[in-house]
TrEMBL record:
It comes from the Bacteria. One of several proteins that assist in the late maturation steps of the functional core of the 30S ribosomal subunit. Helps release RbfA from mature subunits. May play a role in the assembly of ribosomal proteins into the subunit. Circularly permuted GTPase that catalyzes slow GTP hydrolysis, GTPase activity is stimulated by the 30S ribosomal subunit. It comes from Alicyclobacillus fodiniaquatilis. This is Small ribosomal subunit biogenesis GTPase RsgA. Residues 113-260 form the EngC GTPase domain. It holds the Pfam family RsgA_GTPase. GTP binds at T152, K153, A154, D155, G204, S205, S206, G207, V208, G209, K210, S211, T212. The keyword Signal does not apply. The lineage of its organism: Bacteria, Bacillati, Bacillota, Bacilli, Bacillales.
Length: 365
């Protein structure tokens, strides 16, 4: 098995060399289900579980970021006679698509790691929504990967020009592709991203056509099997299909269930990158830390008033700004609660997990 097709390169090799000396084998997570993994290694695909230490630190210390995600390069020790592997850690993440876990908990859930491009899918039929595209762009930029807007179901669209213009208004420098996975129109234009070893994650609401696009790109090799039941030595458990797949013409694609809902996790570059126009106008606000709400001499509100900035776009920006502020508050509350319940040491660990992402990122102003 040549891992180059799975995204392995000289930078990874260098990082791995020290672990190699320690007897570790390396592999890439191709699927995950309830902390049971499938890992692609030079020996082929193996079932894997995390080590007791990762499980302990991840669950007891609530360090969810220690669990590997689809796309991660993991360090494993292979148990020959059991045909399985134990994951002891992973190589640094070049990018990660994160969201908040559902419910009241304030944990980061990593849905895909080490991605080069996020294909942000939006269908060109009645579900088309500029505001949703904006949210998707914020999340995509925050991942550290390059977003690409893919407008699907072109064959069902009757007002193409208006919708494409709307998408381009939102895109601001991000490439927009118009495709139909049924007629194959526009599919060829995506080939520039599908280079050997480059990883693409698909992001988009249920029904936008993610699986159909995967099938289309996979061509005749398409083998999307639904969840299957498998017997193994430990009894029956559910395994999922592969979520990281190699495309026949090069490139890898990730399609996981976690990519249906676009949920914010942390304010960082994403908001700035998506709303560069607002950031530029805001340079003219009287107060340096203007939130463009009740402050006097606010250039952004003036621009909306003069009709130079779309008010819906501004509202969507403000809404996400509030959501991020709310998340930040919840995280602080959570850290305080953890400190009270378990002591300062655990709280510090949690704090470091939260602040790790902030490093090197621009704040709003
Ligand atoms: N006409 C047309 N239909 C499409 C196209 N792409 C997808 N569809 C249809 O849209 C429906 C949903 O497509 P899926 O590929 O299952 O959507 P999905 O994004 O994977 O949905 P989830 O798995 O729920 O997240 C299916 O009935 C597809 O046949 C397209 O380009 N044109
Ligand atoms: Zn302002």
């Amino acid at each position: 098995m040549d891992l180059v097709h799975w995204g392995w390169n000289s930078i990874r090799e260098e990082e791995f060399s020290i672990f190699k000396e320690q007897g570790f084998c390396v592999g890439r997570i191709v699927s995950e289900h309830k902390h049971l993994y499938k890992v692609m290694t030079i020996h082929g695909e193996l079932h894997a579980e995390v080590s007791g230490k990762i499980r302990h630190d991840g669950l007891v210390l609530e360090r969810r970021d220690l669990f590997p995600a689809v796309g991660d390069w993991v360090l494993v020790k292979i148990i020959e006679h059991e045909k399985k592997a134990i994951i002891h850690g992973f190589l640094s993440r070049m990018s990660k698509l994160s969201r908040k876990v559902s419910g009241n908990k304030v944990y980061e859930q990593i849905v895909a790691a080490n991605i080069d491009f996020v294909f942000l899918l939006s269908s060109l039929n009645n579900e088309f929504n500029e505001r949703r595209l904006e949210r998707g762009l914020v999340v995509s930029w925050d991942s550290g990967a390059q977003p690409v807007i893919v407008l699907t179901k072109a064959d069902l669209c009757t007002d193409m020009a208006a919708k494409v213009a709307a998408a381009q208004r939102v895109a601001r420098g991000v490439s927009v592709h118009i495709i139909s996975s049924i007629t194959h129109d526009g599919i060829e234009s995506l080939s520039r991203y599908l280079r050997t070893g480059s990883t693409i994650a698909l992001l988009g609401s249920s029904g936008v056509g993610k699986s159909t696009l995967v099938n289309c790109l996979m061509g005749e090799q398409a083998q999307r099997v639904n969840d299957i039941r498998q017997d193994d030595d430990k009894g029956r458990h559910t395994t999922t299909h592969r979520e990281l797949m190699i495309l026949p013409n090069g490139g890898l694609i990730i399609d996981t269930p976690g990519m249906r809902e676009i949920q914010l996790w942390e304010a960082s570059d994403g908001l700035n990158q998506t709303y560069q126009d607002i950031e530029e106008i805001a340079l003219g606000c009287y107060y340096k830390d203007c939130l463009h709400r009740d402050e006097p001499r606010c250039a952004v509100k003036d621009a909306v008033f003069r009709g130079e900035l779309d008010s819906d776009r501004f509202e969507s920006y403000k809404k996400m700004q509030s959501e991020f502020a709310d998340l930040s508050l919840k995280r602080s509350g959570h850290i305080r609660a953890v400190a009270k319940e378990r002591g300062g040491q655990y709280a510090q660990l949690l704090q470091s997990q939260y602040s790790k992402k902030k490093k090197g990122r621009r704040t709003l102003k």
